Amino acid sequence: MSRYAAFVLFLALGIEIHVSHGIEVLVNDKDGKLCLYANLMVNFSVSYEVTGNKNETVEIELPSGAKNDESACDATSSTLKLNFGDGHSWSMNFAVKGNTYQADSITFSYNLNDSTVFPNSVLNETASVTMKPHITDVGLDTCYSCKSKDMIQSDSVNQTLWNVLIQAFVSNGSKSDNLTTCAADVPATTIAPTAAPTPTTTPTTTTAVPVTNSTSPAPPPTTTPTPTLPSPTTGKYSIKPDENSTACLLADFGLRIGFKQGDKYQEMNLDPNGTVASGSCGVNSSELVLVSNSMTIMFTFANDTKKFRLHALNVTAKPSSGVVFSEVNSNLSLWEAAVGSSYMCNKEQNYTITNLLTIFTFDLQVQPFGVKKGVFSTAEECFLDSDLSFLVPIAVGVALSFLIILVLISYLIGRRKSRTGYQSV
Ligand SMILES: *[C@@H]1O[C@H](CO)[C@@H](O)[C@H](O)[C@H]1NC(C)=O
Ligand SMILES: *[C@@H]1O[C@H](CO)[C@@H](O)[C@H](O)[C@H]1NC(C)=O
Ligand SMILES: *[C@@H]1O[C@H](CO)[C@@H](O)[C@H](O)[C@H]1NC(C)=O
Ligand SMILES: *[C@@H]1O[C@H](CO)[C@@H](O)[C@H](O)[C@H]1NC(C)=O
Ligand SMILES: *[C@@H]1O[C@H](CO)[C@@H](O)[C@H](O)[C@H]1NC(C)=O
Ligand SMILES: *[C@@H]1O[C@H](CO)[C@@H](O)[C@H](O)[C@H]1NC(C)=O
Ligand SMILES: *[C@@H]1O[C@H](CO)[C@@H](O)[C@H](O)[C@H]1NC(C)=O
Ligand SMILES: *[C@@H]1O[C@H](CO)[C@@H](O)[C@H](O)[C@H]1NC(C)=O
Ligand SMILES: *[C@@H]1O[C@H](CO)[C@@H](O)[C@H](O)[C@H]1NC(C)=O
Ligand SMILES: *[C@@H]1O[C@H](CO)[C@@H](O)[C@H](O)[C@H]1NC(C)=O
Ligand SMILES: *[C@@H]1O[C@H](CO)[C@@H](O)[C@H](O)[C@H]1NC(C)=O
Ligand SMILES: *[C@@H]1O[C@H](CO)[C@@H](O)[C@H](O)[C@H]1NC(C)=O
């Protein structure tokens, strides 16, 4: 009897070990050397429309048998892509940022035509959501480790990641033993209150501010050796139509302004701590006003039926010199995306607002219209984030060759014309 019980226990443990193992992925570069390592567990909760105008929610697990044939690495960006089941896929993009790396986006595509997973689905297509992971400031040559559960929400898909161990940009072919641990895994007592500036007003989920293993000399993300300003902290701002509603406007970004007063150019970061957000949501126009003790910034977004854009920007700054600076441009077309989706740009961007004012954004995601359930809808990524940015040099090359051919043709035609000219004389 006890032997039987032990066998059952062993079996149960065996299953338990299998289940908690998750999926392990090894991606090799073109020389056959390890360039990306991942071991993680992911669950999805997907809400979809079924017959009878109702919604059904299903739980899906990323299976350990998912295929990673489409993963790829290069020196500064890499993609982990896992295909599974009948046309479903999950991918994560990584990018190097100074002496750290981060995950820029997660895209989950699910085939609603797969009736074993989505029974009675009304739609017959592959849906796709792009979300922003909380994996930032991971030291190069370290593994990102997060055992805690991290839920990332969007309007129709919630995904939960846990037991995550990832190293992107593996150097010399072997996984590092040094870890960058997420804040959620670090016992609360060891976090110095000022060490982890959390810009969130209410940190509900595990907004992972990674803490680099203090015994390792891995590059600390806060101490940039350059004399320029450090990257601004990412702020999370939201506007509610009234106190009892969920948000109708969402904006996450780190912001820096650069401006000229006379001959002097200076830059200032917006500190989300102490910044008060206000504004309004409308049908044709929404407004976000951010007031800190050193600057006031007013963003006006326009809804042009199908697309929205940042239409006007009014920046007033009080630099330490005491002379107030103010510039307005009411004729902008920035941050464009379809109404009902959000605009996202993780890469550092600069925008010339007027000839005296430039703004710089970091980890940007905005949605000024059509926010549902208080969370960002599917993101439309900026060009620089997308995998297509490699096309730029190709396009330039094609344009140049085209120009050369054009010059050659006009030269030949010219020669011919001048020759016939001589003959007619
Ligand atoms: C996602 O999570 C939120 C909060 O827990 C919940 O209200 C919502 O129904 C979930 N959505 C899905 C698709 O599971
Ligand atoms: C993940 O999904 C599996 C199967 O749907 C479920 O048994 C498990 O409890 C889920 N885990 C979490 C953390 O949601
Ligand atoms: C769903 O797609 C299949 C082929 O992929 C097609 O034969 C079928 O008619 C479609 N059903 C609907 C309701 O669109
Ligand atoms: C915000 O600023 C106040 C006062 O400057 C400080 O006491 C507080 O710790 C800061 N909070 C964060 C999260 O940095
Ligand atoms: C930090 O790294 C050292 C080896 O470099 C390791 O012994 C130690 O366990 C690590 N600590 C944490 C908290 O990961
Ligand atoms: C890990 O950190 C130690 C110093 O604590 C360093 O000597 C070692 O080279 C690092 N290992 C890797 C793989 O980066
Ligand atoms: C919000 O709800 C509270 C109680 O539920 C109510 O007293 C208050 O009037 C509501 N406010 C608005 C703006 O609807
Ligand atoms: C955007 O504008 C169009 C036309 O003015 C309107 O029908 C639509 O409801 C607006 N969208 C939102 C989310 O306000
Ligand atoms: C929004 O714009 C449309 C057309 O541009 C106009 O018909 C409508 O009255 C406007 N709505 C509001 C609330 O201003
Ligand atoms: C810009 O903002 C400043 C301060 O908030 C305000 O005084 C000024 O009138 C605004 N300018 C425009 C054109 O809205
Ligand atoms: C706004 O910008 C457009 C194109 O960028 C330009 O044609 C138009 O003249 C500008 N209007 C004003 C008032 O500056
Ligand atoms: C603005 O961005 C461009 C490329 O996007 C870059 O070449 C330029 O140096 C940037 N300017 C500043 C002031 O950072």
Could you name the key traits of this structure?
7-stranded mixed sheet, single chain, 44% strand, 8-stranded mixed sheet, 2 domains, mainly beta, binds 2-acetamido-2-deoxy-beta-D-glucopyranose, Porin, 425 residues
Task: Describe the fold and architecture.
By secondary structure, the protein is mainly β. Strands 1, 2, 3, 10, 11, 12, 13 and 14 form an 8-stranded mixed sheet that branches. It contains 2 helices and 27 strands. The protein is globular, with a radius of gyration of 26 Å. It has 2 domains: 2-185, Porin (Beta Barrel); 235-385, Porin (Beta Barrel), CATH 2.40.160. The structure holds 2-acetamido-2-deoxy-beta-D-glucopyranose (NAG) (12 copies). One 2-acetamido-2-deoxy-beta-D-glucopyranose (NAG) binds next to loops. The site of one 2-acetamido-2-deoxy-beta-D-glucopyranose has 2 residues, from loops.
In terms of topology, how is this protein built?
Blueprint: H1 2-19, E1 23-28, E2 34-50, E3 54-61, E4 72-73, E5 77-84, E6 88-97, E7 100-111, E8 126-131, E9 138-139, E10 143-146, E11 150-153, E12 157-168, E13 179-181, E14 211-212, E15 235-239, E16 249-261, E17 264-269, E18 276-280, E19 285-291, E20 295-304, E21 307-317, E22 325-329, E23 334-338, E24 342-345, E25 349-354, E26 357-367, E27 379-381, H2 391-424
Parallel strand pairs: 10-13, 24-27
Antiparallel strand pairs: 1-2, 2-3, 2-12, 4-5, 5-6, 6-7, 7-8, 7-9, 10-12, 11-12, 13-14, 15-16, 16-17, 16-26, 18-19, 19-20, 20-21, 21-22, 21-23, 24-26, 25-26
β-strand number: 27
- In N-to-C order, the SSE pattern is HEEEEEEEEEEEEEEEEEEEEEEEEEEEH
Unreliable runs, pLDDT <50, ≥5 residues? Answer: 5-20, 190-209, 211-227
Sheet with the most strands, sense and barrel status: 8 strands, mixed
Rg over CA atoms: 26 Å
What's the shape? globular
